[in-house]
Amino acid sequence: MENKLRLDEGKIVRARQAAGNIATGVDHFIGTRTTVAVERTVLRLMGVDGVDADWVPLPNVVTDHVLERGLLGKGVSTAVLNAVVQLGITPQQVAERVAVGTLDLATVPPVDKKIITAKGQEMAQMGLDRILANRQERKKRIERLGEGRKPYLYVIVATGDIYEDAIQGKSAAHQGADIVAVIRSTGQSLIDYVPYGATREGFGGTYATQENFRIMRKALDEVGEEVGRYIRLCNYCSGLCMPEIAAMGALERLDVMLNDALYGILFRDINMQRTLIDQAFSRMINGYAGIMINTGEDNYLTTADAVEAAHTVLASQFINEQFATMAGLPAEQMGLGHAFEMNPDLEDGFLLELAQAQMARQIFPNAPLKYMPPTKHMTGNIFKGHIQDALFNTIGMWTNQGVQLLGMMTEAMHTPHIHDRKLAIENARYVFNNLRHLGEEIQYKPGGRIEKRAQDVLDQSLAMLEEVEKVGLFTALERGWFADVKRGLTGGKGLSGVLEKEEGYWNPFEIELRERAGLPMREEVGSP
Membrane spanning segments where (predicted)? Predict the structure, then answer.
């Protein structure tokens, strides 16, 4: 314990208990509801893909068709699999016929429920077996090739053109990157469908599509063979299509997914009911696929002061941990987020940043914490920026973070060029190599500035969590307790896509995921 901060374990236990009660309260609320995105995800896991003549994705076409006929409250599975059994066709063929208007699912005579249930179980097992095969393939490749040492060096590509992203991703791997994240096109999180096919015209990033995932996965597998280590692929499944993109990532062997409802609520004004329901199913998929999720607490410090609001980051980490646990995600896949975002002109700011990072590392010892670089206080002075990134890298190595999202010295100027990325990787590798075992050698002064700061943040976080526990997460969000941003229960985008589950609601994939993960069944999730 000599090289650890002295934190009150009793307070940590109380904080987890409060966060668990908060998450349970939300789960009880969302458990009686589904969303159009969840139902579209079910179709994708059944193998439904493609678009209609107007380029509307077939999962949207079918879900909207079932919704318009008042049948979606029982789950899209019931209507679609009834047609599959009755007509002797595949879910894809059902979708294609619905799209051209030759099949109305409301007019198909009902089949015996036991037959539909058996077909649903068969489809769920087939769909999840595909995901399991990808997880096993990842494991084999890592065993054969090896991978980078933690903290993983995480860099972004954001050209808007998936084929250019593939080139830049390969370049980054040759330069030393361990994780390549394809930044999503601006605003995609707010569209209620997933674009189709390869795309070359994104804005500030590249559209997240299944074909784009396939192209990047192939490119990174190729470069992995060249550099002799497995290169992880990251994308974003936050937003209105969160569970759909999680499923697409699982089917194409992505390794990391940005996955955080609180981020969507606070920074994209997505309705809290909608995205928390979507998050629950998406995290079950990510958990089963072996995908590491990343959460977005770092963003809190872009709208609130990093010193004053540090406790809100820790409180959110506790809550996100509980949501993830309830979805069957092990700690080893919880990339809980935080950031190096204090004003560089602050005296002893480095000590305060160190306290925050070390505290998070001790409280979540098995989580591959995602540590974000300085961005808010980057000025365009590239020399100062490079030093800020070096200090950030120093703390990342010192406190044994799991994922180091590398800062770029031109952060305040433009989307990073290839040479900016190379310099960022060189910076991190230099620091990491020279400070590899520093954390094992340093002792924190009992009662010193660093330890006292961590204790104060923990105290404030505990107090906040126990207040949220009293009023509920929804009310806390309405009052602006996170990131100084207020959101309403019925406000934001996507509320119209939330539905009450009706008696007999059925999602065979949720049932199968819960069985495979050893999670308790919901009372609302039964058979048709």
Answer: none
The CA–CA distances, whole Å, from 360 to 22, 68, 134, 323, 407 equal 20, 47, 31, 17, 20
In a domain, 355, yes or no: yes
CB count, 10 Å around CB of 474?
19
Strand ranges (E), 75-230: 152-157, 179-182
| Strands of 340-480, DSSP E | 370-372, 403-405
> Alpha-carbon distance 15 to 357, whole Å?
18
Give the DSSP H/E element, type plus range, for residue 337: strand 337-339
Range of the domain at 366: 148-454
Dihedrals phi, psi of 275, to nearest 5 degrees: -80, -25
**Residue 324 sits in the same domain as residue 410:** yes
Total domain count for the chain? 2
Q: Which residues are catalytic?
A: 263, 298, 370
Are 259 and 347 in a shared domain? yes
48 is written with which tokens?
């439904």
Q: Is residue 477 part of a domain?
A: no
Q: Along the 528 residues of the chain, how does pLDDT read in single tens digits?
A: 568 999 999 999 999 999 999 999 999 999 999 999 999 999 999 999 999 999 999 999 999 999 999 999 999 999 999 999 999 999 999 999 999 999 999 999 999 999 999 999 999 999 999 999 999 999 999 999 999 999 999 999 999 999 999 999 999 999 999 999 999 999 999 999 999 999 999 998 999 999 999 999 999 999 999 999 999 999 999 899 999 999 999 999 999 999 999 999 999 999 999 999 999 999 999 999 999 999 999 999 988 999 999 999 999 999 999 999 999 999 999 999 999 999 999 999 999 999 999 999 999 999 999 999 999 999 999 999 999 999 999 999 999 999 999 999 998 888 788 899 999 999 999 999 999 999 999 999 999 999 999 999 999 999 999 999 999 999 999 999 999 999 999 999 999 999 999 999 999 999 999 999 999 987 654 445
Q: How far is it, in rounded angstroms, from Cα 193 to Cα 40?
A: 9
The two three-digit tokens of residue 385, written as one number: 């920026």
